[in-house]
Amino acid sequence: MAADLGELLVPYMPTIRVPKTGDRVFKSECAFSYDSPESEGGLYVCMNTFLGFGREHVERHYRKTGQSVYMHLKRHVKEKATGAAGGAIPRRRNGKVFLDLELNRDFNGDEYDCEDEAKLVIFPDHFEIPLPNIEELPALVTIACDAVLNAASAYKKQEPDSWDEEIQVSKHARSLRQQDNGVRIPPSGWKCQKCEMKENLWLNLSDGAVLCGKWFFDGSGGNGHALDHFKDTNFPLAVKLDNLTLDIADIYSFDEEEAVLDPQISEHLQHFGIDIIPIQRVHNGHHNTDNTNGMRPRVSEWEVIQESGMKLKAVYGSGFTGIKNLGNSCYLGTIMQVLFSIPEFQRAYVGNLQRIYDYSPLDPSTDFSTQMAKLGHGLLSGLYSKPPMKSELIEQVMKEEYKHQPKGISLKMFKALVSNGHPEFSSNRQQDAQKFFLHLINLVERNCVGLENPNNAFRYLVEERVQCCQTQKVRYTQKVDYLMQLPAPIEAASNREELIAYEAKRNEAEENMRAPPEPVRARIPFTACLQAFTEPENVPDFWSSELQAKSAGVKTSRFASFPEYLVVQIKKFTFVVDWVPKKVDLSIDMPDFLDLSRLRGTGLQAGEQELPDLTPPIVLPEDTRGKKAPEIDESAAMQLAEMGFPLEACRKAIYYTGNMGPEMAFNWIIAHMEEPDFAEPLALPTFMEPGPSVASSGLAATPLDNHPPEESIAILTSMGFPRRHTVQALKATNNNLERALDWIFTHTEREEEEEETSDALSDMADTTEPNDSAFSNANTHSDSTLSPDQDASGPQIKDGPGRYELFAFISHIGASTMSGHYVCHIKKEGRWVIFNDHKVCLSERPPKDLGYIYFYRRLSSS
User: Fold this and answer.
1) Among 4, 202, 644, 828, whose Cα sits 20 to 30 Å from the Cα of 784?
2) pLDDT of residue 851
3) Are strands 237-240 and 251-253 parallel, antiparallel or unpaired?
4) What is the pLDDT of residue 638?
5) Rounded Cα–Cα distance for residues 260 and 167 (Å)
6) How far apart (Å, rounded) are the C-alpha atoms in residues 399 and 710?
7) Cα separation values, 23 from 118, 148, 154, 223, 504, Å
């Protein structure tokens, strides 16, 4: 038999590989679906690429690659046998559990046993070889099979558990001696005992001294008094007094000179009157709540948003599939639930599922369109949201085998792809759902397939009117946007007197080192938010082209077009000294129906005079006038880059805010981060040479002759692309060769249409500035108007009436976007449904007033 198996495998030996260091083995998730070894058909792992495939998709991979040998993995989940007293029999080590799988944790507890089955399958005849079969298989095949079976998860580096390997338990943790000196640490009002610094404070766990840190561990600044205290006393451990929770505590050992873990941190803190057991935090999908300086746990917010305490009816089927929380991944799950409730995204990805799968690359785990189609199908197919049937339950009891019903889908592969290379989204920390929405919009834009771009549903034009206060002349510009940021003016709160009284009590409690009073939530009318949006705002460092000098300027924003779907973000978060976004506790009576028609821009009005179309001159000292690079505070740029922003964008922000520090530059970044050339290097015209008009947004000026360099055109045309298409690609990507190549590939289907355009229009496209006449029809109510910075082949604007109906909203629980939990509510079939990670239920009381991001759809004109 051994010889027979050896001869059988000989033709396939060149295709069987042993996983090397760096190879990812996908043995817990199919590349095209959410099938796993726990699924009915198990999972097939290619013995060459180590990609996993469900039963329905393994044939596709075989036909595309010719790879014939796969390892079939199947996990059987059974109920544990019970003893005479009814309790579970103590679990013995099961020799049949040999797969290193991180699968459905709901069925790996004390009530169930797992049996794993593995075998080699040879296609197309489906010849099966049970494993392990060491004696009968060739040595290479045996080594390869063992390596696959014992390989770590493909996402191991992204798992929260991996942090434990980097941070070790301190040698002082268990033997730490704490002084009985009667020190009690108040919940707020901390100051350094030596310099009264209020930021970057550390509590010494031996004597309770609160002192400032230095440039260590988290990069925060200070005067180093915590380290001086260690040198004087030899007390080794200190914990950072910022967002202190039971599961997240920054502990530093001065003696070991590194960040450490302290298993007894709860007891060590209780010694100084800090009880963090009830201070819970939303982490890894558990019920937790933030506690920040001077604030009590927001239990009511948690209960209201999640509709806790209510008997919510679970719903199943198409469109009611939950998403498992991977550990602070709810920001991603809520955004994807809402996006795939929109027909444009359903059509673009799920409607083109077979086409996308058929044309997917050899490694579909790295293809954005494939993973979007997979996610959409997982949410909409209903395959992973099936209710348990009575007959199945009876059968399972009789056979003592648990045939689990899938509880949502796990987005490990999708998260690994969309977060790849991003400093924030690739981490295991909580993130801002609004930032992820814009990040995903950018990915869709770069990877959209076919003629239909689902982003068209969100894209609209903003009309910005800037007026010089001295000359009264104006400038109108337009820009593309995808999201409306709505201010929340606290001063307009209907319970303003109550808020003032609370603030006085809070300040008094802080001064007297007492516990703060019960927080008061601001109630702000929606009309006040809309009024704040329409009011003029000052333009800092406004340069008047009429005066040829800096002057006072004001800016107002209106809609130049209305999108099919309007996304409204409530500006609930403010940035404090430590750069952590803190949330303002407020509620807004968001309407179910919204009419923004009065906010439509009007363009230049009769009697208004336009400012001259001139670029601000760049004034430099005489000795630097001939240099090409402007002076930039590189240390400030690096400080911003450490927050996760592209370095080139940070350098531009520093430059355009006149080297006035990272705070001003940070505001510039927030205002311009969605512009297409946001991360492009700083590009300026020749100094003192006038250039084209630049919007008040502060974009880098470009020379009047915007024709791409001939050498760049030659490189792309040498690849076989038409010259005119090459010129358009370079113009659309600011002459960036790599992005231009991507642009060509994503716009190839429009090339035939463009070839029919007249030569006159072609010449005009090559010589006219992109902003010229871009908005001639922006104020009409046609179905589609062009965006301001693209030609006919670029993104489209779908204009229409400004009347909308609320159909979804995302709520945030917690005090900061860097922590907490997200839940979304979506209106389906006339009913509000709550999506709370993998749990999907009919909503009883949707908390519309506590939302963070709202999604409105346009009402039909009929």
Assistant:
1) 828
2) 95
3) antiparallel
4) 83
5) 5
6) 74
7) 20, 10, 8, 46, 60
Taking the C-alpha atoms of residue 611 and residue 620, their distance in angstroms, rounded to an integer, is 24
Strand stretches in 88-209, DSSP E: 112-122, 127-131, 168-169, 201-204
Cβ distance 78 to 402 under 8 Å? yes
Q: What is the pLDDT of residue 276?
A: 61
Q: Look-up: residue for tokens 């939302």? A: 851
* Per annotation, catalytic residue among 46, 330, 448, 824: 330
Q: Is 172 a catalytic residue?
A: no
User: pTM of the predicted model, to two decimals?
Assistant: 0.67
Q: How far apart are CA 110 and CA 607, in angstroms?
A: 79
Give the whole-angstrom CA distance, residue 793 versus residue 675.
18
Give me the numbers of helices (H) and strands (E) for the chain, helices first please: 24, 31
Q: Output the known binding site.
A: 192, 195, 212, 225
- Listed as ranges, residues in the chain with pLDDT below 50 are 1, 82-95, 97, 103-110, 158-165, 215-220, 277-299, 400-404, 577-579, 620-628, 685-705, 749-793
In Å, how far are 114, 338, 512, 831 from 316, measured between CA atoms?
26, 17, 54, 14
pLDDT at residue 21, as a whole number: 86
Angle between helices 647-656 and 662-672 (to 10 degrees): 110
Q: Residues for the chain: how many in total?
A: 862
**Rounded distance, CA 50 to CA 67, Å?**
11
Binding-site residues from annotation for Zn(2+): 192, 195, 212, 225
Please provide the DSSP assignment of 342-360 as one string: SHHHIIIIITTHHHHHHT-
Which residue among the candidates 57, 172, 725, 821 is catalytic per the annotation? Answer: 821
pLDDT at 791: 46
Per the DSSP assignment, residues forming a β-bridge with 82 are: 88
Q: What is the dihedral of CA 350, 353, 359, 364, to 10 degrees?
A: 70
Contact yes or no for 818/430 (Cβ under 8 A): yes
Q: Is 126 a catalytic residue?
A: no
